[in-house]
Design brief:
The complex is a heterodimer of chains A (159) and B (795). Chain A is an alpha+beta fold and 159 residues long. Chain A is 36% helix and 14% strand. Chain A has a five-stranded mixed sheet with strand order 2-1-5-3-4, covered by helices on one side. Chain A is globular, with a radius of gyration of 15 Å. Chain B is 29% helix and 22% strand. In chain B, strand 13 and strand 14 form a beta hairpin. Classes of the chains: A alpha+beta (159), B alpha+beta (795). At the A-B interface, helix 2, helix 3, helix 4 and helix 5 of A face helix 1 and helix 19 of B.
Chain lengths: 159, 795
């Protein structure tokens, strides 16, 4: 099947198998390997991307279902060498170790920041129900989410 | 510190950017020209004879390139997967070491064992063919539980391993321990199960094998903590590939925790298959497949007794453990419940005599091997639960009984009765600091506040010590290691003064690309952005023993400092020539070689340039160039230790245990980067809490089927399962290495299971509960509370 979508701000069209998952489409067909696959039961959240601005486990969605949408992956966040405020916060707060769950964490954290008017530690911990990290014990991820949310708010206010 | 980016600075990590922008390079991300996809057909039975595999029927399917089985391995003379440790049991009896073929030959011994390898042009085609492959099994009864497997009527896995007994090992002095028990005023005892775990690094394993028919060279890309060791084991013992014709690359690896330090059959199989079909072969493990093929962990059944005098002083400790090896010996498997367990049972206490015996048993389950902490969490759990029981029985406060028995700071170096000599430590200092940080004294008020809300609050304390920095090769050799356990480092100073560092350690989350650069920065006065750490590729790095057992810094980091010393020594010779001074008058500091007491100096970069452009250079006495290599073999293990305190709140209506506070005070030796150390400790604690409260690997006792085979059945800790942790350090420098470093990778996981379970038992103590096995799941806790209340009502 032929699909067309906006991927990281660019128009993309491709021929895909009907059974192809969005995660497979990104990784195998487009070579965007920043989106990771850490399980086969949609538990781990390493494959989270944004579909029309909403965080989505890309292993739970068919590529054909993404036709006509705007998809953002971890590769699409930074502006050149300037990291997105949430990426920068993960760096500052040491919110990553092995880096495998990180793309999903960052994508999920951005939606948290965008949709949570008054972020708190408790809200951040509850938000991460769908993302598993084995390295960090989550503490620095939570700090990253809160710092990143504050940065995103101040960036918006300044814009 | 002598450098703004040197030792002790909380630098943000150099490696972060590629991971944060999706530019990491994991094995699963790689594509090679002409690559085929491999899928393994795995046994659905725990124990069965293979009567036939109908490979011909799938060979004609779309895209199928080849189907290989254990018979093909035998035909090609491929060896079995070797074990890296040979344990000698009581009476000098060597452990049983049955063959471990990379794919089953004639018989399968655990559910998930690979029986065939299907390769096809696409993953879908390989999956479809694997699905269609008919394997004819004749199922046998299975030996599943570790105690059941020892029974005389149990099914036997190997014809020449009676009773499924791999080894019967002991350490310590049995007679002296018996004598101590004979004069004891009080004896406390415990029976416990250390529950089986599945490590679950977030990146599933993956491997790509590539054979180049033109050169005869092989390359294996693998998700390994240990590429050099894989090269040696697989090349030399399994595939008979000369070492100079084999390259092993472990690029970015998404977490290891021990489970990626072993040589796995799939690594051998993709490498071997690539030479048969003359195309690169890629395999990426699915998570559910990982549950059935990654080595598992822990799985002990233990009884232990502690003898005390009337004042609560420990007189002797006796421990009997049965440990599950699984169906085959994994790389480090037999070493975990013996040396890494029995030799740590002294803890931080002055217990004068100890006797420990361990029976290691084969079962029809996955191989069991090292997982973060590896043996030491199990030892700590036995000892610290037993100490709490003794305190309660003797009416001594739990902090007080520990204080009475703790090794005083002045007593180091301290020889324990179980081989280890601790070089340094201040466990009483850690304890005091932890008690204060956790407001131990104010617990009664918090308990009352919880009680007012209908919750049962408990507090738990644990001290621990670990031996890491594996290892002094001589000692390890005596204990059964079949390899040396040094580490190597090379520092290549480029003509511009920029530096490439080659380390035999591997980083898969630990941050070596930053922390190792900090060590070099400190020593050579070069900022970290001019220093790159190269690791994980046997074609680039001289040699190495890899990363596990918190050894990277304590062995690899010290090797690096040793190489740095050689760079400085050579630089001094060059500077002496250029400055026309005596070598003994040259000092190095702040990035400069200076004639002592003068302003005559050459910068590090000037010396580097002179080394490569030797116009003004002592060529008569010295070679050009500035590159040095060092191997470091430690004289002793390092011994991090500490004290941890947890508080839990239990809802008696639901049995849910809420971990509400966690405090850790750890002595990890010199801290290179406090940000990274805190992160390691957070993560370690989370894994230990996982074992205590959530994680449990469960097999069906009869069929040997893995019941906890996905993230839906095996409960991984989530962010909202954990409290904000308070972590602090209380440092004593390691006395026997140049950096004073000990290691921090495992401390959290070693201290936390006992800490949390001591808190759980404390919360339930009023019900007469003295021990709870892990995990303290709502089901288990609710039953305990319910049964205790029923029993009390009946009285």
């Amino acid at each position: 099947m032929q699909i067309a979508l906006t991927l990281n701000g660019k128009e993309v069209s491709a021929e895909v198998r009907p059974s192809l998952l969005l995660s497979e489409f990104l990784r195998e067909q487009l070579g965007l390997t920043g989106t990771h696959v850490g399980c086969d039961t949609s538990q781990c959240g390493a494959c989270v991307v944004h579909v029309d601005g909403v965080s989505m486990k890309s292993c739970t969605m068919l590529a054909v279902s993404a036709a006509g949408t705007a998809v953002t992956t971890i590769e699409g966040l930074a502006q050149g060498d300037v990291l997105h405020p949430m990426q920068q916060a993960f760096h500052e707060c040491h919110g990553l170790q092995c880096g495998f769950c990180t793309p999903g964490m960052v994508m999920s954290a951005i939606e948290f920041a965008e949709t949570t008017p008054e972020p708190t530690e408790e809200k951040a911990r509850a938000w991460l129900e769908g993302n598993i990290c084995r390295c960090t014990g989550y503490q620095n991820i939570i700090d990253s989410m809160l710092a990143g949310a504050a940065k995103m708010k101040s960036t918006q206010a300044g814009a | 510190m002598s450098s703004a980016t040197g030792i002790g600075v909380p630098l943000r990590r150099k490696e972060d950017k590629r991971f944060l922008t999706g530019r990491g390079n994991y094995v699963a991300d790689m594509k090679l020209a002409g690559m085929v996809q491999a899928v393994f057909v795995r046994s659905p039975h725990a124990h069965a004879l293979i009567k036939g595999i109908d490979t011909a029927s799938v060979m004609g399917m779309d895209g199928v390139v080849a189907v290989l089985t254990g018979e093909d391995l035998a035909t090609d003379g491929v060896g079995g997967i070797p074990c890296g440790w040979g344990i000698t049991g009581k009476g000098g009896v060597a452990m049983k070491e049955p063959p471990h073929p990379a794919m089953a030959q004639g018989k399968v011994r655990h559910a998930g064992e690979a029986v065939a390898m299907v390769m096809a042009e696409t993953l879908e085609q390989a999956r479809e063919a694997a699905e269609a492959l008919v394997v004819d099994y004749d199922p046998l009864p299975a030996a599943v539980g570790v105690l059941d497997a020892m029974h005389s009527s149990a099914p036997q896995l190997f014809d020449d391993v009676p009773g499924n007994l791999c080894y019967d090992w002991d350490v310590g002095n049995e007679r002296a321990t018996d004598a101590a028990f004979a004069k004891a005023a009080h004896i406390s005892s415990i029976s416990l199960v250390n529950n089986r775990l599945i490590p679950n690094a977030m990146e599933p394993r993956a491997a790509i094998g590539e054979f180049n028919p033109g050169t005869g060279d092989y390359t294996l890309w693998t998700t390994s903590q240990n590429p050099h060791v894989i090269k040696l084991l697989m090349g030399n013992f399994v595939l008979n590939i000369p070492q100079h014709k084999l390259r092993v690359v472990a690029p970015d690896v998404g977490g290891g925790f021990g489970v990626k330090s072993f040589h796995y059959p799939e690594e051998t199989l993709v490498t071997w298959a690539s030479s048969k079909i003359r195309r690169p072969v890629k395999w990426v493990c699915e998570r559910s497949e990982g549950f059935l093929s990654d080595a598992h962990a822990r799985d002990h059944v233990t009884t232990a007794e502690l003898a005390l005098d009337e004042d609560g002083k420990f007189l002797g400790l006796r421990v009997k453990t049965v440990a599950n090896m699984g169906a085959y010996l994994s790389t480090f498997g037999p070493n975990i419940p013996s040396n890494l367990y029995g030799l740590l049972l002294a803890g931080v206490y002055t217990t004068p005599v100890i006797y420990c015996e361990v029976k290691a048993v084969f079962t029809n389950t996955l191989p069991v091997d090292a997982y973060r902490g590896a043996g030491r969490p199990e030892a700590t759990f036995v000892l610290e639960r037993l100490v709490d029981i003794a305190a309660t029985e003797m009416g001594i406060a739990k902090d007080e009984i520990r204080r009475r028995n703790i090794i005083p700071k002045e007593a180091y170096p301290y020889q324990t009765p179980v081989i280890m000599e601790y070089d340094s430590g201040d466990p009483a200092g850690c304890l005091d600091k932890a008690l204060e940080a956790a407001d131990w004294a104010g617990f009664a008020d918090r308990k009352a506040a919880s009680a007012a809300e209908g919750k049962l609050r408990g507090i738990g304390l644990c001290t621990y010590i670990e031996a890491c920095g594996l290892a002094p090769s001589r000692i390890a050799g005596r204990l059964g290691a079949r390899a040396g356990l040094y580490e190597s480092a090379a520092i290549r100073v480029h003509p511009t003064g920029d530096i490439s560092v080659f380390t035999g350690s591997h980083t898969h989350g630990q941050g070596h690309e930053t922390t190792f650069a900090q060590i070099v920065s400190e020593q050579l006065g070069v900022p970290v952005d001019k220093i790159d750490i190269v690791h994980g590729d046997t074609a680039k790095v001289q040699f190495g023993m890899g990363t596990y057992a918190s050894r990277s810094l304590a062995v690899g980091g010290v090797a690096l400092a040793k190489a740095g010393d050689k760079i400085i020594a050579k630089g001094k010779k060059i500077a002496a020539h250029m400055l026309e001074a005596s070598e003994s008058d040259i000092e190095f500091g702040g990035g400069e070689f200076r004639v002592a007491g003068t302003d005559r100096a050459k910068s590090f970069a000037e010396i580097a340039l002179a080394a490569y452009v030797p116009h003004d250079y002592p060529l008569e006495v010295m070679e050009p160039g500035l590159e040095e290599q060092a191997f470091y073999d430690p004289v002793n293990f390092t011994f991090p230790g500490g004290a941890h305190i947890a508080e839990v709140e239990i809802d008696p209506e639901t049995g849910v245990v809420d971990l509400v506070a966690y405090t850790a005070v750890d002595d990890v030796g010199t801290v290179i980067n406090p940000l990274v150390v805190d992160g390691q400790i957070h993560g370690g604690i989370a894994q230990g809490v996982g074992q205590a409260l959530f994680e449990n690997c469960v097999y069906d006792d009869e069929s040997g089927q893995l019941l906890s085979g996905s993230f839906m059945d095996y409960c991984m800790p989530r962010a909202d399962d954990l409290p904000r942790m308070t972590v602090a350090t209380h440092i004593t420098a390691c006395a026997h290495n140049a950096l004073g470093v000990k290691g921090c990778g495992e401390v959290g996981t070693i201290g936390s299971p006992a800490t949390v379970m001591n808190a759980v038992v404390d919360a339930l103590a009023h019900l007469g509960v003295t021990h709870v096995d892990m995990p303290a799941s709502p089901n288990r806790i609710w039953r305990i509370i319910h049964n205790a209340q029923s029993a009390m009502a009946a009285e």
